[in-house]
Amino acid sequence: MEGKTVVVVDAMGGDLAPVEIVKGAVEAVQKNDRVQVILTGIEEQVRAELGKYSYPEDRISVVHASEVITTEETPVMAIRRKKDSSIVVGQKLLKSGEADAFVSAGSTGAVLVGGNLVAGRIRGIERTPLGALIPTKTGVTLLVDSGANADCRPSHLVQFAQMGSIYMENVIGIKNPRVAIVNIGVEEEKGNALVKDTLPLLKNLENINFTGSIEAREIPNGGADVVVCDGFTGNVILKLYEGVGSVLIGTIKESLMSSLRSKIGALLIKPALKGTLKKFDASQYGGAPLLGLNGLVVKTHGSATANEVCNSIIQCITFKEQGINEKIRAVLGREARTKEDKEEA
Amino acid sequence: MEGKTVVVVDAMGGDLAPVEIVKGAVEAVQKNDRVQVILTGIEEQVRAELGKYSYPEDRISVVHASEVITTEETPVMAIRRKKDSSIVVGQKLLKSGEADAFVSAGSTGAVLVGGNLVAGRIRGIERTPLGALIPTKTGVTLLVDSGANADCRPSHLVQFAQMGSIYMENVIGIKNPRVAIVNIGVEEEKGNALVKDTLPLLKNLENINFTGSIEAREIPNGGADVVVCDGFTGNVILKLYEGVGSVLIGTIKESLMSSLRSKIGALLIKPALKGTLKKFDASQYGGAPLLGLNGLVVKTHGSATANEVCNSIIQCITFKEQGINEKIRAVLGREARTKEDKEEA
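Above: the input entities. Below: the structure tokens describing the complete assembly.
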């Protein structure tokens, strides 16, 4: 496995598991020879799926996990009780260093709680945010925190900004990414208490390209590469983004079916429109990384198909090869140590 | 003026003032004979605009105000210093009872601050939220608070829910409106501290039809008639709504111009598409009401044209005729008095 990125994949998580998950894993090892996959889950079911494909068999192994955590379960209880679930077993492999990354389409809450309780945080990291990649007019933006921490303190947002910047620069490849904080105006005096307290801290950071406040209206325009906010606001943004998009497209499609004239028109515009809507499909970038853990944890959509699972697995290679966690440790770990030293002195 | 609704209109506020504002006022008195308009602003300019139209002249009067508040000014300073501005002069007419409502397309901050400092709050109302009417798949939803109060307490959200419910039922005419709180999941344990503390209070209210949490994704689907949140979250929702919509439509339009085939298709679908997009234009409902003041204050878009100004003025008639403030006073004033009595005892 020398030099290869080892990715554990939760074969039981997601609406289409294990079928699409296993298929995505097979596609990943076929597409990229720098990745090694470990599937965790009920071995019999996983092997039955694997049996459908021909692939380099030494590149996918199966680690049995007898339990499955569902999205209906309370995350903390589920992680504590189901020690032999695919999520806990998978994250233990991360903790032990046997794997570099963990990918799951299962319960977001359980993946987050498992990340903190099983894999563990990098020293100095106060909170681990979920970073969702959202499509914009000009490319893609990292929304961080997109839902892991509903209540945040200014120091949390500062770390989100730093980790988000490292991720966008090194995994997505955007040089000197523009980092902005979600606000209700760009004027100095605008904001709620959290944003007002966070703004001066972000301005003083030397290791990120902080561009100030961003209004929600500018996010779809690609007004920043990293958009920082608390997890409540981020989750509202993420879900409204999906909601407005799908309602608008749905209503347009309906209107196109309303007359013979518009039906003919619809046939003519179909190819052009398809390309445009594809641009607004973020699944090509893989899943949402949970930043600040020992190892990379990637949460893909609950409805993820093989293609998204495959992209999520391949995304982990860059993460490992670019040494993202070492970079996070170098920047944030040092600050944390300095802070601790100061407190001790 | 017996029985008529008297609406003061800030003739100097907005990007297109005084031209479109005066035109909108003229349209309002032409359309509806139950309204009387007072225009506040620089008399010479206002009269010059009025001179362009023929209209029942006894239905529009002008009250001179020598100063204008711009959107660049700090609201509190502007309201305190510019005592002879169109906003302050107009809101004084509300305070004195000479007018029932005040409509402005000017600085949102100044209109809000003026509402609280000049017109004054109904006794018992802790905070006055801005209620924006946002278009949905099935109609229109009141988003309250859409930006007036960035930081809120649970008791504020409870009053927003009650005032919003009264507004939607009586002004927009939705029977027993469904009231929901913005949340990041519908499960019991979801939410930030504010939402978790507010949920049990809303559940215990008997005078509203509270349906629980709503995820942002469901807002464009028309999942609730009144959507309650703090002003920071509400402003993010309002602006993202506009942003996603305009970027998506802009990108679709661009793609339609990309080939001859799609251009012909675009011509064919134009009528059907136009009807659909009009459905998503909330300007037909008028402006955003600022709830809980002595008299109605309506904030229209800074870019409001005559049509939106006219609709905002006409919206005030229902507000007055349905006795909204009396209803707010009856429900919330009573609760406030009970609370005060308890505290005194």
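Note for the figure: The longest strand of chain A covers residues 35-41.
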